[in-house]
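Researcher: Please translate sequence to structure tokens.
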Amino acid sequence: MIPGVQILGILFGLIMIYLTFLSFRKKDYDVKDFSLWILVWLFFLFITIFPKVVYGIMESLEIQRTVDFFVIGGFMFFTIIIFYLYKSVRKTEKRVETIVRKVALKK
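Model: Translation complete:
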């Protein structure tokens, strides 16, 4: 029997896969971004459907509570995302600055 939390997790994962697919079809994502997010949501679904897989990892890391494991994993995931976004924003700022300089020098 699947507990209610698992059902909510499965629904959430499936909805996020659908939204990711819609964004890809609208050309908001390229193939690399689409693949990354599909892997993230499939991993989420896998952990939601088979939560006992996590227990072996938790034992080796000496983490007592499942919630602690997911909080630590969430912080790591969001730190990676924030770093990637920061890097992308800096790159975009440099490109805009270069374009503005070229336009200013032409005038």
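Researcher: Any highlights?
Model: The mean pLDDT is 91.
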